[in-house]
Write a structure and sequence with these properties.
homotetramer; 139 residues; 3 helices; 5 strands; Thiol Ester Dehydrase, Chain A; alpha+beta
């Protein structure tokens, strides 16, 4: 999936009051939510609904690392385009590259490298990503 | 707009990790965010983008009252249908009825009565809703 | 506990960037978080830690109703005083009155009536509040 | 301030329902809020209240980079100790090292490197940090 430089999966995110802060712009921590919505929809698009994974595979992805650069502010009512692209695949974790752009002018607002690891539902211990999940990721 | 019992405007809302709490369900305070997204999209649908209102009319709506009943829980990955329906129009405020339902089974999860008042952007003081806004609301 | 008009339990809450919105004030939905922090600390003060209740009594309180009036705005860096006072006790639910005031001038910012119901941890079904919890509430 | 390896400023943070997610643990994005509360209290402790800075110096700090590692989960009712320590000072930005630990066992839950830059309030453009702010930071 897009290890060839393709932009990857895209998901639209609208900025609401809940996302802004007293600086008049999107509160930086909320980009982590936007990135997660895009990752979730990318996984769902690949047939990997997280609630289903938890029920059927007994595990789920947890976020272990988030490196984010905030370049330009977004404002109330802005429509963003948020991307997700698989960068690296390990036995127990994935590294995903993500961007948030203004949908109108494609201006880059923030970009991130996110590492997610597979954990057992009950113990929350790191485990190997189920084979069918890896297969779907590289389909 | 729908003072006749029609369901009013509908807006889909997906439940992500950010919306849930350790009870395994949507954190109740987040329904206020869902209701606001639906109100915002309803207003936008009527030509009343809030950032535009602020810039061109020098004011915006603030929420002055939120009465919510939480009936059934929603969970991760659920797709909700959130409605907005104008109930009452005053000189300076609106009362809006809203519901959140599970999109699949139409089961009612939460309903709310929300009062929003128009305030001047600079002073944050209550003022009269601009005439063109009232016109658009009743178009 | 304070069914006699006493102000009840008080808890300080500082306003951070995360709490504000592009209007320059505290985002209204966040008062529900402030009210919950005060309720939680009030319960803890009575010996009713929620994580302990869940583990030892197999249940927890969920919020079933939140009626809030937002009177005046709070801003970044403001220090609020948030109260919690038991209003009514039922077999399966409690009604709690809460206020948020500016700590400096005691100006009332928002007040709320919150109903919380006891549910079984596993089924999330309403159940009777454990006797020792009721005893602690009225100690 | 603590460029010598001292732990730096410490601030207690309690975990409430609002902070958790359906995995039963603190939602990772919320550590950014915890880190910001500790930075804000550290700055306040140095006489640098942010609302005062905005009013008197016409600017404020914005977050331009957040690199976070999430090591162990925190749960409802946990009491965390969150630190802030100045790592580097530039003309227009600061780099701050932060940790979140369980207060009881000092177990490290998450650590972060956060870059904040000074911007002009009106234009949101990067500017030089006021001299008195730098003086206070190194007092």
């Amino acid at each position: 999936m897009a290890e060839d430089g393709a932009p990857g999966f895209e998901w639209p995110v609208r900025v609401y009051w809940e996302d802004t802060d007293a600086g008049g712009i999107v509160f930086y921590a909320n980009y982590l939510k936007f990135f997660e919505r895009a990752r979730t929809e990318w996984l769902r698009h690949l047939g990997l609904g997280q609630e289903t994974l938890r029920r059927e595979d007994g595990g789920f992805f947890v976020v272990s690392q988030t490196d984010v650069r905030y370049l330009k502010p977004a404002r109330l009512d802005d429509l963003l385009c948020v991307t997700a692209r698989l960068d690296k695949t390990g036995r127990g974790s994935l590294v995903i590259s993500q961007e948030a752009r203004l949908q109108s002018c494609r201006s880059l607002l923030a970009h991130a490298t996110i590492r997610i690891g597979w954990v057992d539902h009950a113990s929350l211990k790191p485990s190997r990503i189920p084979a069918h999940v890896l297969t779907s990721l590289h389909a």
